[in-house]
Write a structure and sequence with these properties.
The protein is built from 5 helices and no strands. It is mainly alpha-helical and about 100 residues long. α1 packs across α5.
């Protein structure tokens, strides 16, 4: 089956996940090892202000738009990382 949407690979998702885990751990003031990327951000204590700040950091880091609803559309770090990897894949392939 052919898909025009790039599929994120482990190689692209892992560094994004690691970066997101570090950022979220910083917001919560906990060690990164305590953050489970599959737990919804709301359940681990990310509030709306932190979520908005995370979106801003995503935009700054990867120069792609990150709507304020990103953490609601993709409620876990793993889901956000998969989305970002898919968004970044065309840029990676073009370089």
């Amino acid at each position: 089956m052919y898909s025009t949407i790039p599929t994120p690979t482990a190689g692209t998702v892992v560094p994004i996940t690691d970066w997101l885990v570090e950022r979220v751990a910083g917001y919560l003031d906990v060690p990164a090892r305590d953050i489970d990327p599959t737990t919804p951000l709301a359940e681990i204590g990310i509030d709306s202000v932190s979520a908005l700040s995370l979106c801003g950091e995503v935009e700054e880091r990867w120069r792609i738009p990150a709507d304020a609803t990103l953490v609601f559309d993709y409620p876990t770090i793993a889901e956000i990382a998969g989305y970002l990897a898919g968004e970044l894949a065309p840029e990676t392939a073009a370089s």
